Amino acid sequence: MSVKIQNSPNRAAFDVQASQDLRSQFQKDPQAGLKAAAQQFETLFLQMVLKSMRDTVPADGLLQSDQTRFYNSLLDQQMAQNMASSGNGIGFARLIEQQLGQHLAGEASGETGGDISAILAGKGLPLDLPVARNLQYREVLSSLPTSAAYAAQTVTGPQGSTEAPASARDFVNQVWPHAVEASRSTGIPPQFLVAHSALESGWGKSEIRNPDGSSAHNLFGIKAGKSWTGATVDTVTTEYVDGKPQQVVEKFRAYGSYAEAFRDYAGLLRNSPRYSGVIGSQDGTEFARRLQQAGYATDPMYADKLARIINGPTLRQALIG
C-alpha cells in the first residue's frame, strides 16, 4: 500500500515533528519518501531566496518591529513549503527525485553502494540531517542543469570552494544528533544550536574542562547558579563590565555527556521566561539577537559573532560534509 507523505500546504512549515514523520514513513514507502525529501530540499532553497528578497526591502517604518519580522519569516517558510509541495516551485524537487530515484532503483537490484541505501532505509545517516547533507547534495548538484546548479551554488557555496576545517566537520558530526533532539523540544533549527555550541566552545577546541583535563561537556557556557545541584567546575571566563572585558573565575555546570549538555540547554531555553522570545526562532540572525537581548552573555558583540557563524561558510560546509 502506498503511503502519501508529500509536504502538505496545510501543515505548518515550522512543525518540528515533520522530520520524524518523514523518517518513519520513508521506511514504509521509499519512493514516496524520496519525493517528500526532494520537496523539503526545494522548500529550503525557496525559503532562502524569499529571505534574500525580503532583506532588500527597507526595514524601517511604523509597522516594523521584532514581531512583524518574526511573523514575516514564518510566512516566508510557509510560502516556500506551499510552492514546493504544489509543484509551482523551480523544479529542484523533480530533478533531485529523478537523480536519486536511480539510486533507489539500483538499491532494489543490489547495484548501488551503501550510502544512499542507508539513507533510504533509515539505517545509516538519520533523515533529519540537513537536507543538503541527507540527499548527497554535491552529487545532486553536479547533475542539475547549469543554470539551476549556479543558482544553488549561490546559496550553498560552489563546488571547489574552500571546505570547512576537518575539526569543524568532526565537531558537527559529534553534536548533530543531540542538536536534532534539542530542536524537537525547542522548535529552533538544529543548525542554530550547533552554531551556538560552536561559538561557546570554539568548535570544541576550547570547551570547559575538569581539573583532570577531561571534558566537562559544557558546550554552551552555562553557569552553575544557586539552583544547580549537579557537578560543577571552576574556570576562567571573560565577562564584560561597562563594555570592557574582565577575566574572572566562575562556577560552571559539568555534564556526563554532550547529550546531557544539549538536554539541559534545551530545558533552560524552554523553562526560563527570559528566553521565551528565543523559543521557535526560525531566522538565524533573530535567534542570535534574541539570545543577547535575553541576557545570555555580557559580550556586546555576542549576537554578531553568533550570527556570523550561523550564516557563515564554515558551518555551511561542515553541514554539507
TrEMBL record:
**InterPro entries, from UniProt?**
Flagellar_prot_FlgJ_N, FlgJ, Glycosyl_Hydrolase_73, MGlyc_endo_b_GlcNAc-like_dom
| SMART domains from the UniProt entry | LYZ2
Q: Name one GO biological process term.
A: cell wall organization
GO CC aspect terms? periplasmic space
Molecular function in Gene Ontology: amidase activity; hydrolase activity, acting on glycosyl bonds
* Residues in Mannosyl-glycoprotein endo-beta-N-acetylglucosamidase-like domain copies: 161-314
Q: Which Gene3D superfamilies match?
A: 1.10.530.10, peptidoglycan hydrolase
What keywords are assigned to this protein? Cell projection, Cell wall biogenesis/degradation, Cilium, Flagellum, Glycosidase, Hydrolase, Periplasm
Tell me where in or outside the cell this protein is found: Periplasm
The organism sits in which domain of life? Bacteria
Q: Can you tell me which family this protein belongs to?
A: In the C-terminal section; belongs to the glycosyl hydrolase 73 family.
Q: Which PANTHER family match?
A: PEPTIDOGLYCAN HYDROLASE FLGJ
Query: This protein is called what?
Result: Peptidoglycan hydrolase FlgJ
